[in-house]
Write a structure and sequence with these properties.
single chain, about 220 residues, mainly alpha, Helix Hairpins, about 0% strand
């Protein structure tokens, strides 16, 4: 509970775990695949808990900068990164074939659509984001408020790139950059985790819907 309350990364891991487990309900997941998914999720959360424990232990015993403390924290964070990359790889192996048929049809429509559609979609996403911010009455179009505009636009761009590129590495890098943008808004204190999460969902969802309607 302490880790969930205080650590942004473990919140992200748990949200992704819910999404993955929810997706497994809609696809033909075998018993073995479900076991692999469960173990993978548990491994990522386990690594994050160990990382948190190491950071707290170091902070409790060292009240000044020490290069070895920095190395210990970086190695612990590296362990979490390895488990996360492994989780992405396993998710790709299990889910890619199951969603490929749906994705291929949509990608074909996007590739055959007007090249200016990408610009139109981004404009529409920005306008919808501004409208939602106005409804909530918080922040400005470029700073603060619900949802995060940076998160919405970055995930919209990542979704567009993923449909056009089709290459798993490019898709992964696109969404990784979108996550970095979203996390930077939380780290700087401009947005809360909830605001960037809603922005990520909104950007992805709106892009898919608009493509489906106009392609």
């Amino acid at each position: 509970m302490y880790a969930v309350r205080t650590q942004l990364n473990i919140k992200i891991h748990l949200v992704v775990a819910i999404i993955v487990m929810g997706a497994s309900l809609f696809y033909d997941i075998t018993k073995i695949e479900l076991i692999i998914l469960s173990l993978t999720i548990m491994l990522v959360v386990f690594a994050e808990l160990i990382n948190t424990a190491i950071e707290v232990a170091i902070d409790a015993t060292t009240n000044y900068y020490h290069p070895l403390a920095k190395i210990a924290k970086n190695i612990a964070a590296g362990a979490v990164l390895l488990t996360a990359l492994n989780a992405v790889f396993i998710g790709y192996l299990i889910f890619w074939d199951k969603i490929n048929n749906f994705g291929f049809t949509l990608i074909t429509k996007i590739k055959q659509s007007n090249p200016y559609m990408v610009f139109v979609i981004l404009v529409m996403v920005v306008i919808i984001t501004v409208i939602i911010k106005a409804i909530y009455g918080e922040g400005t179009p470029l700073r603060g408020g619900m949802p995060s505009g940076h998160s919405t636009i970055s995930f919209s761009i990542a979704t567009i790139i993923s449909y056009i590129a089709q290459e798993p590495i490019i898709i992964g890098l696109s969404f990784m950059m979108a996550i970095i943008v979203a996390q930077s808004r939380v780290d700087t204190g401009v947005h809360s985790f909830k605001e960037v999460l809603v922005g990520a969902f909104l950007g992805t969802f709106l892009t898919i819907v608009i493509f489906k309607i106009f392609s």
